[in-house]
Every structure is written in C-alpha cells, then in structure tokens.
Design a protein that fits this description.
BirA Bifunctional Protein, domain 2; binds phenylalanine; eight-stranded mixed sheet; two-stranded antiparallel ribbon; alpha+beta
Length: 360
C-alpha cells in the first residue's frame, strides 16, 4: 500500500468511527484543516519533480474528494440519528388525559350586577358610586326620611362610633344616598344606576346584614311617570328574558318619592316551584317613584324646573329569582362547590341579556 492509500484508509475509517457530529468535525479538521494531514501533503507538492507532482497531486485530490464525500454522507446520517433521538426524547403521549386548566368563576351576584348594568347601559345610563359609610344627612335627612322613621332606629341600622363632633356615621341602609351625592354635583339630565353594598341589622334565610342593591335615578325636564313605567317594564322584560312579561305598578310609600310604586312581575307557583312570566300570581321585585320635590330642593334644584324618577332593587333577590337560588346566605359562604355550580364562566359575559335591542 502506498503512503497515500494508507492515509486514505486511515481517514476513511476515522470518518466511519466518528460517533457524533463533533467527532466528525474533528476528523475533518485533522485531514483538511490548515494543518491537516492532506493539506500538509498538498503544500509539499511544490518540492516534487513535475511528473511525480502531477501523480501525487491527482492522487491527493482524489483522496480529498472521496473524504469530503464520506464526511458529508456521515454527517447526514449523524444528523438524522440526532433528530430521531431528539424526537424520541421529546415524544408527547397524546393518549394521556388532558388536565383542564383551573378557571375562576364569576359569582352570581357580580354576574347579576353586570346584567343589570348592561341593560341600563343600553338605555343610556352610566354607573355612579358612593361610600359605604355614610352620614345621617345623605342616608336619611336629605332623602326626606323623618327623625321618627323606624329605619333610623338602633336595632335596624348599624351606627359607628361618634366622630369628634359627636355625629355617628352610619353604614348605608340603601343605595339612595348616591342619588343625593349625584344631584349635588351633576346638572340634569342625569341618568345613573348605583350598584353597591348596603347594610341592615337583619339575618335569616332571606336577609343578610350586608347585601346589595342597585339604585336608579333619572332627572331632567318633563320627566314623568310614563318614563318610569316604560323604563322599568323594559328592564324587567330584558332581565328575565321574557318579552311579554306582565309588569304591575302597585301604589306604595317611600319618604323620598311621591307618588311611589312597588313593581311586581307576573308569575305562578307549580308544586312549590316558581315560574316567572306566566300565571296569575305577582312577585314584588323593586321599589320606585317620582323623586319627591323636597329631595330635589334638598339638592339645590327647583322641582318646578326639573323632575325625575328613582328606583331601587335588591341584587340578591333578583339573582335568586333568575337563577333559582333558594337560600340567600349561600351567596356569602364561599363554598367552592356552590360557586362552581352557580358561578358563570367569564366567557359567557358578552351574552348578558336578550330582548332589549329591538325594544328601545
Ligand atoms: N331605597 C329604597 C329601599 O331601600 C328603594 C327605593 C329606591 C325606592 C328608590 C324608591 C326609589 O327600599
């Protein structure tokens, strides 16, 4: 065997023996790199006789070509092996059961407030808020609630410790104080709803010391009882999703509205189960009335120039009726099983209500 043939056999067997891409690269450098075994021989050609130079040059170039080919073939093979090893290592077992991502639910009370807000937003109302801790003035006096009214009694209302001026703040007993706050700072036309927490000293299956109300207030020129009725009929029908829901206005009394009306919706009870929208029974769902002239005056406006109507509803009660929840106390138990059952997926929110778009 000539020296060149030995070199060739040696290099080719190194290529075959290279077990990974790094080893193969080392073989390549050892042969064809600047100081590689073939390169060195090629450099020496200059010193040979012309005839020998030609022969040796041809032979070396042939070895060089064969070697390059062998390296490239080996490289392809090693790359393919590396890829299948990687695929094997990263294999995903698609037969494994999928783990459902944990998603939070929307609490039925939040959902109900969102529904109420969406319906009134369609009618041009915006949302107003006020403090939970109120003064006697906003919660009672400005709303024309007389000093002897039972709502002012200790056993009905939560009072806080007296302040420096010996005035006792009160946990608001309704959302109506926000009517006053809004009328004081905004000029008519006013169209607001006020969802929020309210507090009364009561606790049983249908009462909680903390609960939620949503107030409504419309103030403007020439606002009359017809507006009140139209607005609340539309609301009730949209909220319960019953286009021809019977709605009844029953005379009532609130110190801050005159005249006042309780709003009832048609229902019937079958085997103790309530069905909304049909039958000859009635269910009270909210209080309302034309804003009392004294209240308008208390807010610095002239009742001969502007009038309005107001309403207030219990959010728990509406949620219980719509979603068939029987015990009010469960709203606040934070029982995960209850929340999973009655809660809403956030994704449901766009489909908040039906039936109002054509009507208004
Ligand atoms: N504030 C009243 C209540 O708590 C509800 C109401 C609001 C009635 C506005 C009339 C007008 O019962």
């Amino acid at each position: 065997m000539t020296e060149i043939e030995t070199l060739k056999a040696d290099l080719l067997s190194s290529v075959e023996g290279a077990s990974d891409l790094a080893a193969l690269e080392a073989v390549r450098l050892d042969a064809l790199g600047k100081k590689g075994r073939i390169s060195v021989q090629l450099k020496r050609l200059g010193a040979l006789e012309p005839e020998q130079r030609k022969q040796t040059g041809q032979a070396l170039n042939q070895v060089k070509d064969e070697l390059a080919e062998a390296i490239s073939a080996r490289q392809k093979l090693l790359e393919a092996e590396a890829l299948s090893a990687q695929l094997e290592a990263e294999r995903v077992d698609i037969s494994l059961p999928v783990q459902q991502p944990l998603a939070g639910n929307i609490h039925p009370l939040s959902r109900t407030v969102e529904e109420i807000a969406a319906i009134f937003a369609d009618m041009g109302f915006s949302i107003a808020e006020g403090p939970d801790i109120e003064t006697d003035f906003y919660n009672f006096t400005a709303l024309n609630i007389p000093p002897e009214h039972p709502a002012r009694q200790e056993h009905d209302t939560f009072y806080l410790r007296p302040d420096a001026e010996n005035v006792r703040p009160v946990l608001r007993t309704h959302t109506s104080p926000v009517q006053i706050r809004t009328m004081q700072k905004e000029k008519p036309p006013i169209r607001i709803i006020v969802p929020g927490r309210t507090y009364r000293s009561d606790h049983d299956a249908t009462h909680s010391p903390m609960f939620h109300q949503c107030e409504g207030l419309v103030i403007g020129e020439n606002i009359h009882m017809g507006h009140l009725k139209g607005c609340l009929i539309d609301f009730c029908r949209a909220f319960f999703g019953v286009d021809d829901l019977p709605v009844r206005f029953r005379p009532s009394f609130f110190p801050f509205t005159e005249p006042s009306a309780e709003v009832d919706i048609g229902c019937r009870r079958v085997d103790g189960k309530l069905e909304i929208g049909a039958g000859d029974d009635w269910l009270e769902i909210l209080g309302s009335g034309m804003v009392h002239p004294k209240v308008i005056e208390n807010c610095g406006m002239n009742p001969d120039e502007v009038q309005g109507f107001a309403f207030g509803m219990g959010v728990e009660r509406l949620a219980m009726l719509k979603y068939g929840i029987s015990d009010l106390r469960t709203f606040y138990d934070s029982d995960l099983r209850w929340l999973k059952h009655y809660g809403f997926l956030p994704i449901d929110v766009p489909a908040l209500h039906t039936g109002l778009d054509e009507g208004v």
